[in-house]
Amino acid sequence: MKISEIANLPTKYGKFKIQSFMENDKEHLVIFTENLPEIPLVRIHSECLTGDALGSLKCDCGEQLEYALKEVNKQGGMVIYLRQEGRGIGLFNKVNAYALQDRGLDTVEANHQLGFEADMRDFSIVEKILKHFGIKKIKLLTNNPKKEFSFKDIKVIKRIPIIIKPNPYNINYLKTKKEKLGHKIEFNEKWRNNNGK
Question: The CATH number of 2-84+121-192 is which of 3.40.50.720, 3.40.50.10990, 3.30.750.24, 3.10.580.10?
């Protein structure tokens, strides 16, 4: 694993530090506050070009990233930005999965149709990154239990949910994450009644 220098990153969410971690052909990024608390707030965020950069309404990724940066700035901690687009299938295959979703498949069915597992992501580098910072305990900002239980030597003392209001374009995507991938997502009665068909 190669590790870059630390640089300043002033953003509209606050002033952060950044450092890149390179493993094999993947270049990951850590965005962190200057004074890390002993038990920092940590968000493990997998790259989503369409949601993070283009503002896609088909997922909740961009909103989760924005929420995480705001909370990390307030509480102290880091966002670990992993370069594993489309739940690990890459951008090219993600666009093909989008096309299958346009024809009525959900995200899991689309991945299977393309010959992939529902979620191909690998979170093993996260533990190495946290150890590099000397972190042993974290508060984890996630709805995904796979992230919560992906550590051997790092203790998750608290899982903090990310609550994002659904929209008509991503409600079925969120329902699929909840029902097929076990994500801990809550829907209020209005969305359940009007969009949970």
Answer: 3.40.50.10990
Averaged pLDDT for residues 134-142? 95
Is 63 annotated as belonging to a binding site?
no
Strand, helix or coil for residue 72: helix
* 137-141 vs 14-23, strand pairing mode: unpaired
23 is in an annotated binding site: no
Give the catalytic positions in this structure.
119, 121
Q: Which tokens belong to 136?
A: 């042993």
Confirm whether residue 56 is marked as ligand binding.
Answer: no
Which is higher by pLDDT, 137 or 123? 137
Q: What is the pLDDT of residues 72-110, one digit of tens each?
A: 999 999 999 999 998 889 999 999 999 999 999 988 999
